[in-house]
């Protein structure tokens, strides 16, 4: 994520440097829409539009991650409550078990 922001910052700086060196009016035409403005303005609008589109594309992933995190938190809370009740429950006495002799512990 930090690399994305760093790359976006570098791209924005390059775009601004380019716009400052090329201050000629440009005409942008798209279908029936026509816009004329400075190159800096056109680049600024394009960068902002790209940022908005990338945010809109990432919204479903963010929502899914938050939903998953909330579900896991609920599951952890339920498991912790189950663990607490298991720890508070008295253990039933266990029958003593005889240990089988280990190698070398018997009579020689």
Quaternary state of the chains: single chain
Helix content: 55-70%
Runs with pLDDT <50, length 5+?
none
Order of helices and strands: HEEH
Widest sheet: strand order?
1-2
Number of strands: 2
Distance between the termini: 69 Å
Average of pLDDT: 85
List key phrases describing it.
108 residues, mainly alpha, two-stranded antiparallel sheet, 2 helices, 2 strands, 65% helix, 11% strand, elongated
Task: Describe this structure in a few short sentences.
This protein is mainly alpha-helical and 108 residues long. 65% of the residues lie in helices and 11% in strands. The longest helix is centred in the middle third of the chain and has 50 residues.
How are the SSEs placed, and which strands pair?
Layout: H1 2-21, E1 25-30, E2 33-38, H2 39-88
Antiparallel strand pairs: 1-2
Helix pairs in contact: 1-2
């Amino acid at each position: 994520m930090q690399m994305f922001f760093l790359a976006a910052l570098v791209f924005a700086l390059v775009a601004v440097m380019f716009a400052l060196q090329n201050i000629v009016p440009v005409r942008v035409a798209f279908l029936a829409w026509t816009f004329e403005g400075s190159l800096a303005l056109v680049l600024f609008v394009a960068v902002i539009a790209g940022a908005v589109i990338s945010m809109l594309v990432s919204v479903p992933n963010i929502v899914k991650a938050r939903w998953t995190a909330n579900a896991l938190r609920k599951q952890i809370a339920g498991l912790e409550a189950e663990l607490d009740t298991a720890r508070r429950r008295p253990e039933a006495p266990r029958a003593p078990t005889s240990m089988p002799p280990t190698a070398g512990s018997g009579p020689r």
